[in-house]
User: Fold this.
Amino acid sequence: MENKTFTISVYSENNVGLLNRISGIFLKRHINILSLNVSESEIENVSRFVIVVDTTEKWVQNIVGQIEKQIEVIKAFYHVDEETIFLESALFKINSSLLFDERQIQNIIKESHSEIVTVSRDFFVISKSGRRSEIEELHSKLKPFGIMQFVRSGRISVSKEKMEVTSLLLEELKS
Amino acid sequence: MKISGAEAVIRCLLAEGVDLVYGYPGGAIMPVYDELYKFQDQLHHVLVRHEQGAAHAAQGFARATGKVGVAIATSGPGATNLVTGIADAQIDSTPMVCITGQVGKHLLGSDAFQETDIIGISTPVTKWNYQITEADEIPEIMAKAFYIARSGRPGPVLVDITKNAQFDTLDFSYKKCTDIRSYHPKPVLKIEKVAAAAEIINKAKKPMIIFGQGIILSKAEEELKALIEKSGIPAAWTILGLSALPTEHELNVGMVGMHGNYGPNVLTNECDVLIALGMRFDDRVTGNLATYAKQAKVVHFEIDPAEIDKNVKTEVAVLADLKEALTALLPLIEKNSHEEWHNEFKKKYEIELDAVINEELAPTNGKGISMGETIEMINKHSKGDAIMVSDVGQHQMFACRYAKFNQTKSNVTSGGLGTMGFALPAAIGAKMGRPDREVVAIIGDGGFQMNIQELGTIHQTKVPVKIVVLNNEFLGMVRQWQELFFDYRYASTVMTNPNFCAIAEGYYIKARKVTKREELDEAIAEMMASKDSYFLEVMVEKENNVFPMIPTGASVSDIRLS
Assistant:
């Protein structure tokens, strides 16, 4: 079986220590997490993990099974890229003078559909959301001018298909 | 009325029906020990000699009784000493609740005296863990701990309680936990899956059952027996499934796995349907997965969804509590005898008898006492009614291969983790849990010295366990591998042992050493007749090997008889 990029989505209670428990499952199998994002989900008091890994489908099935087994995990899913809508966000901090001295920068910002978040006397900040490749492209275009700071977020993603979590919880409340 | 957190801990234990705990006091757990002192007429605390002993004793108690075992330790080293036992309970699905003291909340994360991040350390080896930092969390968390430990696929839970939470007061009321919204311990049985399984089983010409501890954990021994007898299907067991079906049952065809019986291993690769009941296809059972039961349709009955298709791809998986699933399956199964197929097992057993068993049980050529004949002699005197607690190594394999059992929950051993030092404390727990039964610990000279300090617990509590050390003055299993796979290079496996009998006698335990075959019968008779604890050292042949054997990475078909 060949390696692929999988996005694992985990719905869980918002408890201290669960992140450690989940990351341990990857550690145990010597699998590197490419990206990890934890946030609120569409359900009140339920957290959503979005974890990106590069592995085989067999392993990702096993991993999702092990994740679901954790007491405070409500449900876990995995998807390949085609089954999800996903993006990452990045911030670039750049010397302010360049904005005025290098005309090109304004064009780069416009063409890349990125946004200027703030402009101050010393620096300005560009934000860009999109696919990894788009962020990397913007990075390479800005690099020659000097990037003071760069940071990119983990992947966030929603699935095209329904994820039956809300109904699971509702059932639970009924019973 | 307000009570202290420490008192609340005791009241929670009593509410859960706990009357026996194992532990060792220390600074951060002292408030709880102060309450144990006050409640000693209702809750018996057994002082072990090392926290690892407490964990294994709690495991032995749980395995022999089916109830949740409880171990208590202080923070720091007390807590970390429990970890081996917790890991053992996790991999062998043993219900256990460990309570550890922790430094006060205001000191957390400050590298305080005896502070250790036991939540972080125990996370990968617990079913669940939680740090209580406020007294009023205690009732709810303790209720959850017991519910999680015993429900579904059981396992160990660790509750870490900061010292302030033990001292502070709360309004106590206890409600048992029966539901956690993110946790579904008992899958809903899908009857169509049972029907699909029944169809495959009924059509099978050469079906074979492998059952594991799931039978014992779900109390499905009777259902298993009924299924086997109705369907006529030969049944083999994993090491943790041992004793779920009486050894002498006609359709009991022995153990699968690395040192299992010849027939069930070889025939795993000849059966047309493999019915796995409450077992998880551990690598010690399957050998090389690429050549494991490839010809067979696999039907897997299992409570833990994460085990389905984990190692072996199934044709039909019935996700359910075993007792419930087998009860539903039984009426759908057609009566059969599979006589010819069963004869295949008998023929293979004859081969094993000739090549291995006869010589093991009655050594020739002037060879010294064998481990197998010692176990056989214990069978003679126990009549198959004793609980056998084995440690890890050659003696464990001999004990599991040759011990006879009439009753369930009679084989207590460290299967998945292979923890040397398990047996002595686990035997203490087993005997305290089942004082009505004879408990015999079978231990090697290596493993005995890993928790030898628990002789002190036996002395103090007067718990009448029988201890048999099979002494070959080697770390025998490793030596066997060195002989077979490392060209006889015995690296650090030779043991220069102390006078074990003198040590046992130092703890005021009656002791005897057997060096000659002629003494064995009488010595074991004396041990079994003893009302008190008894230590028996048997000097066995030094370089005997356990066979059959599936070398690591080999196929079950390639099992070696010598």
Q: What stands out?
A: The domain at 2-171 of chain B is CATH 3.40.50.970 (Rossmann fold).
